[in-house]
Amino acid sequence: MANLYSIFRKELRSYFTSPIAYVIISIFLVLSGYFFYTNLIYFVLWGGADVTAGLWQFLFHDMRLFLLLMVPLITMRLFAEEKKLGTIELIATYPIRDIEILFGKFLACLAMLVLMLALAFLYPALLYPIHSFNIAPVLAGYLGLFLLGCAFISCGMLVSSLTENQIVSAMVTFGLLLLFWFVSWNEAAASPMVSQILLRVSLFDRFYHFARGVIDTKDLVFYFLFTGFFLFLTLRSLESRRWRGLR
Amino acid sequence: MIEVEGLIKYFGSVRAIDDVSFKVERGEVVAFLGPNAAGKTTTMRILTCFFPPTSGNVRVAGFDVIKDSLEVRRRIGYFLERVPLYPDMSVFRFLNFVSEVKGVDKRERTRHIAKVMDDCGLAEVSGKLIGNLSKGYRQRCGIAQALIHDPEVLILDEPTIGLDPEQVIEIRELVKNLAGRRTVLLSTHILSEASMICQRVIIINEGRIVASGSPDELTTELQRSSRISAQIKGPRDRVIERLEKIRGVISVEARGLVSPNVFQYLIESRKDLDVRAKVSSTVHKNDWGLLEMRQVGMTLEEIFVKVVSGER
């Protein structure tokens, strides 16, 4: 546990001693702030009475894209950088369990994600005093973004653990995440059974429920399983060093 | 402290380590000597649990590197040849991180880090980012992270490579001072270094141990002839002719002109016969001048070349 915390602190500090954290967080805020503004204008001009359906839903859809854009840039360095620098050999020969390394890094990324979302909570906080609305669906939307972010992070970690090139790591993560998004778009071409499966594994179709303020246990379980599965694969990928070549 | 038995390591179909067995006792300082790509780093990576052996028994401090890898890693300090470090951490923060994960007692941590930084000459750069340090300081940082938890076993992969002579001496002193208290296995391809700080040398080539013993043992074991260097004033050809007639002399070779009419000679003779007295009397009889004469030992370099090239 103590080791996990040490790794967590090291990773988080590394985001903030380099410009990465500042750049990513500010770009996320600039983009989501701009889209909050345009969505708000749109809602004021043409929206209906329902703020959730008319404003927040769209903002969450937009923020989901920015997360897709930002998270692979956060996760790309996690293991790729350690391999490139050779420091992987350092931490691999320290008395740290692989699982502690895994969760230390995962939690550091989660902290970045939470920070981004917490800062982006400024938008509802600004609007509320002017025009009060039901806050619960908005919270559901943020929960959805958080869960989606967790899934992105776990996917990015796996990719990062497989390469020592950060660019490759980011590109492959982008590719995988986009695939998980588009996989359900071609419903017409797939047979009914396959399309049912595709719809269910799509990361983004689940998110629409959250964006509308609906928390469905099915969706919760899906995101937990997705994240857990990718973390498990990452752990296996880390551990493989310890048994590969063993006879 | 370190027991290696029948160690074999394949990379794909390449046999990087081929049936290596050795032991290092507690408190010993042993050098692992060999040309590049001989298998030194691979062996060390197995000892430090970075990757497993293909087969063979490897135990460090009594623990198996595969079954009790965590226990092994608690007891070792490892200096890596590439000196990988986190460039965006300051020296103090890095050592603090390392002492945390290596389980240095929390109350003693700060004092401990200060002491190690002092020993390694890092105190004046403690607040600097590692990425901004010079090669010498990075190297010390690498040593400091290996020493930080007072490990029972130190495994140092080329600890002095790329340093300036003064720093090399400092690092050697540091390692020397560890002898007796710590078990040290260090790899090097600088032979004088091995003979200077190590009690025992293991020479490895192409994944196999080709010789092992103390530097003195290796010298006597491998030396077939004894050699004398002499400066003699006199006509070169006649000197060679006469000296070669002495019983026990195998060959005489002129090594160059020292001053007018004075040549440097290398006289090789049988190991069991000391020919120095005969040489001096021969010179005397012919009325030449004997300006210098000394026995030349075999350097570790020569032993190394001999062993590695397979000529014994």
CATH hierarchy: architecture of the largest domain in chain B: 3-Layer(aba) Sandwich
Order of secondary-structure elements of chain B: EEEHEEHEHHHEHEHEEHEHEEHEH
Radius of gyration over C-alpha positions of chain B, nearest whole angstrom: 25 Å
Supply the number of structural domains of chain A. Answer: 1
Rg of Cα set of chain A:
19 Å
Write the layout of secondary structure elements.
The complex is a heterodimer of chains A (247) and B (312).
Chain A: H1 2-17, H2 20-46, H3 51-75, H4 80-85, H5 87-93, H6 98-120, H7 122-130, H8 136-162, H9 166-182, H10 192-201, H11 205-211, H12 217-243
Helix pairs in contact in A: 1-6, 2-3, 2-6, 3-8, 3-9, 6-8, 8-9, 8-11, 8-12
Chain B: E1 2-11, E2 14-24, E3 29-33, H1 40-47, E4 55-60, E5 63-64, H2 69-75, E6 76-79, H3 91-101, H4 109-119, H5 135-147, E7 153-157, H6 165-178, E8 183-188, H7 191-197, E9 200-205, E10 208-213, H8 215-222, E11 225-233, H9 236-244, E12 249-259, E13 262-270, H10 276-285, E14 289-296, H11 300-308
Parallel strand pairs in B: 3-8, 3-9, 6-7, 7-8
Antiparallel strand pairs in B: 1-2, 1-4, 4-5, 9-10, 11-13, 11-14, 12-13
Helix pairs in contact in B: 8-11
Give a quick rundown of the structure.
The complex is a heterodimer of chains A (247) and B (312). Chain A is an all-alpha fold.
Task: Give your account of this protein's structure.
The complex is a heterodimer of chains A (247) and B (312). Chain A has 247 residues and is mostly helical. Helix content of chain A is 81%, strand content 0%. Chain A has twelve helices and no strands. With 312 residues, chain B is an alpha/beta fold. Chain B is 34% helix and 31% strand. Chain B has helices at residues 40-47, 69-75, 91-101, 109-119, 135-147, 165-178, 191-197, 215-222, 236-244, 276-285, 300-308; strands spanning 2-11, 14-24, 29-33, 55-60, 63-64, 76-79, 153-157, 183-188, 200-205, 208-213, 225-233, 249-259, 262-270, 289-296. In chain B, strand 4 and strand 5 (63-64) form a beta hairpin. In chain B, helix 8 (215-222) crosses helix 11 (300-308). The mean pLDDT of chain B is 85.
